[in-house]
What does this fold into?
Amino acid sequence: MAEVGANMQKAFALANVIVALIKRYPRFLDHFNARMAKKCPFTLPYLPRRSSFQTDAAHLKSLGYKTDEQEEHYQERMIGCIGLYAAVMQTQCSNLHL
It folds into this structure.
């Protein structure tokens, strides 16, 4: 997802490839969704809540932070992930030249 960042042109180009793979290999959708959920928990309708016994580091990891990651870099990664996810959802198979 780092290659996408906040560049939506790259997101839509990559989305075309992903949708083509899903069309050819339908099970790829499961792998894509799992990868997105791992990299960016905001792609799921679920927000990890901090429990009383959870450390700061464990909670940040559940939110998708990398070890010692700065807030700005984290937000850029999350924007890239959500942008890619949204681009995939908007890409239609009929627009692809397979």
Helices lie at 8-24, 28-39, 56-62, 71-90. The mean pLDDT is 86. Residues 8-95 form one domain.
